[in-house]
Amino acid sequence: MFIHWGPYSLASVEASWPIMGVSRWGISEADYRQLPNRFNPLKFDPTAWVRLAKAAGQRYIVFTSKHHDGFCMFDSAYTNYKITRTPYGKDIAAQLAEAAHKENIPLGFYYSPPDLNHPGFRDTSIDSNKNWRGEPWRAEWSTYLDYMEMQLRELLTGYGDLFVVWFDGLSEQRKFDGYRFHKLIREMQPQTLINNRVGLTGDYVTPEQRLPKAIPVKGAKVGNTDPNDSGLSAVAPTPDQFQPWETCMTINNTWAYNRNDRNFKSTTELVRALIEAASKGGNFLLNVGPTPDGEIQPEFVERLEQIGAWLAKNGEAIYGTTFGPLQQTPGLRSTAKGKTVYLHILDWPGAELSIDNLPGQVRRVRWLGGTATPTFKRAGAKLVIGLATVKPDPHATVLAIDMK
């Protein structure tokens, strides 16, 4: 579960981008900056959020501790532009961390290296849309990097064990001196993962709002939004060649809460995106944008619970798996774990499913959605599986093939 939340939810606008030259949101920078004065999410229940993530089958949470606008959802000692200076007055990140640790679900923090509120990052006397990328040539730049370090130390020492520090460095990420912050995180919490958005590859790469066309390998260019991937593998790479990755995606079209955005992806679309990610060895970080009151809107809850119901039956084919041996097969995706290959059937083939060139000898075939045991036989290079006793799942039907 990815969570984008802050005072911007009051205006139903995207996080930060309205003050970065994106005029379509219809809010001035001055008005945007005043939103914290009205932010008072009295219905925020961190335990309910965490339990929803668990009900959805999600295994970790990433929360926006600070977005590009510089507003902190944690009680940083180094700024007044923070949640504890709003009418709400309490540390949101601390409450979420406490709930996550009690519910035994790993928590990570999104932390934006860009900070449009800090005078070391840019000349704050002019509009953000003119210098939102930062001004590293100014003498004040070093004071901003020191500010980053102090805040990261706060997050790494005050909120328990962190699963990940999820940077979002935007353009020219090298200006943030990623080596400095990798070293800091490795020293303070060696088990914490680091993504690739502070100028270094880190532990994994992060395509955004999209899925790679094939399996990423080391050195692959898997951009945030650029669809022109390069360095991908259409066949299963060796473990040392594989590039760990995670895609992040929204349920509608916006990261933050937007009462006007009703373009929700269906549960089937979301389940199949999860399958697509897993079939190429990736993780799926699915976003919610809570309301100004602190609730997660019912359209999101409904889809998350339905994904959880599908995973309750088919999670064996997702959790702990990696890319499967069958790639680029129309209407079919595969994942693998140990001696088991999982077939995710997207397009129902009818009475039989015919598979070409599946390596190894088959011991048995199982249907994860029910108790029936599908029949199977070899026909030359083909494996033919009988589906007469299998009921199609509306999202995706999963068969487990246990190999000898």
Number of helices: 8
Strand content: 15-25%
Main structural class = alpha/beta
Average pLDDT level: 95
Q: How is the main sheet built?
A: 7 strands, parallel
Query: CATH topology of the largest domain, anyone?
Result: TIM Barrel
Protein model, in words:
There is one protein chain. The protein has helices spanning 29-34, 46-55, 92-102, 128-131, 141-158, 178-188, 267-279, 298-314, and strands at residues 2-3, 61-66, 107-111, 164-167, 193-194, 215-221, 230-233, 246-250, 283-288, 322-323, 332-337, 340-345, 352-356, 362-367, 376-379, 382-386, 397-403. A seven-stranded parallel beta sheet has the order 5-4-3-2-1-9-8. It folds into two domains: 2-317, Glycosidases (TIM Barrel, Alpha-Beta Barrel); 324-403, Golgi alpha-mannosidase II (Immunoglobulin-like). It is α/β, with parallel strands linked by helices and 404 residues long.
